[in-house]
Amino acid sequence: MILCCGESLIDMIPIENTSNEVSFTPLAGGAIFNTSIALGRLNVPVGLISGVSSDFLGQKLVNELSNSNVNTEYLIRKDNPTTLAFVSLKNGHANYTFYDENSAGRSVNISDILDIPESISTLYFGGISLCVEPAANAYEKLFHQEVNKKITFLDPNIRKGFVIDEASYRYRLEKMISSCDILKVSDEDLNWIIPLDIDIKSKVNQLIKLGAKIIIVTKGAKGASAFFENEYEIKVPAESVDIIDTVGAGDTFNAGFLAKLSQLDLLSKEKINNLNPEQMTKALNYGVKVASITVSRKGANPPFLNEV
After folding, report:
1. φ and ψ at 120, to 5 degrees?
2. Domain extents for the chain?
């Protein structure tokens, strides 16, 4: 089973009526939550570690998880409120304003997290849960506790406006990048992590030297690339679709990528470190395919397996 570790929240999605007035519709979301939902809908065994409020919005999140085949036994229930993320869209591209102070997701401590059984093959980390305390410290500790036993997949999914202590956040990411099995970044994330005027491959090489074993870079309409430690690059194109919005696109890509590795029985420490170009190409293409369905509809609404 794959365990997704991090935030779950409510995306407030703007809806414009015929009078050009905007109202907001609450939809379940959060980068880590979205990936767990997408994996569950693709029939991959998956669970979620996340701080979830006991309020009515928290119950909405739990219901969405259950309806999408996600194991909820690792959820950490709190009386604190649910995080809200108000979404603004420009040409289909999403920007976020977060309301997270004293939230259930932010209040997670390492002592809240259940022991990780041997049946878990993969731990998935990232998102805003790595930005703020005490949750960021809890997830970082869990990562380093399990990194030598489980496959670790890291997607920082950087939201600059959410970063309070940039120096501490960069230090945390550097430590996690140096030891993770798979690092996935968007081209925007990569430019934030390495803010130098050099090309993508040169930036990737810096992260490989830091210790990352496999690096995936998603480039929107330009597709995705994967880089190995030997600097070998595999490229796949994006699929041509009518984009409604990009909410949850990267999260769904990650789920598709991991789902294909799961289908190919490659989610073990030994196998993941010996992926060949054919296997990587299949996983990248499946990630792109699944993400293309998500961007063709409103909000983070990953497809079920029969839709793929």
Report:
1. -80, 125
2. 2-307
d(CA 116, CA 269): 16
Beta strands in 192-299 (DSSP E): 214-218, 224-227, 233-236
Q: Helix, strand, or coil here: 249?
A: helix
Q: What are phi and psi of 285, to 5 degrees?
A: -60, -40
| pLDDT above 80 (res 16) | no
DSSP string, 33-90: HHHHHHHHHTT--EEEE-EEESSHHHHHHHHHHHHTT-B-TT-EEESSPPPEEEEEEE
Q: What is the pLDDT of residue 93?
A: 67
**Do 249 and 157 contact (CB within 8 A), yes or no?**
no
* Residue 57 in this model has a pLDDT that exceeds 90: yes
Neighbours of 87 (CB within 10 A): 20
Strand order of the β-sheet with 224-227 is 46-49, 2-5, 122-126, 151-155, 182-186, 214-218, 224-227, 233-236
Which pLDDT value is given to residue 256? 97
Token digits of residue 13: 């999605």
DSSP helix/strand/coil, 22: strand
Burial of 86 (0-12, 13-18, 19+ CB in 10 A): middle
pTM across the whole model: 0.93
Please check whether residue 250 is in contact with residue 157, taking contact to mean a CB–CB distance below 8 angstroms: yes
CATH of 2-307, one of 1.10.340.30, 3.20.20.80, 3.40.1190.20, 3.40.50.300: 3.40.1190.20
Q: What is the CB neighbour count within 10 angstroms for residue 295?
A: 22
Q: Per-residue pLDDT tens for 237-277?
A: 988 888 877 778 899 999 999 999 999 999 999 999 889 99
The region that residue 272 occupies, defined by phi over 0 for left and psi between -120 and 50 for alpha, beta otherwise, is alpha
**Range in 128-132, 186-190, 231-235, 304-308 with the lowest mean pLDDT:** 231-235
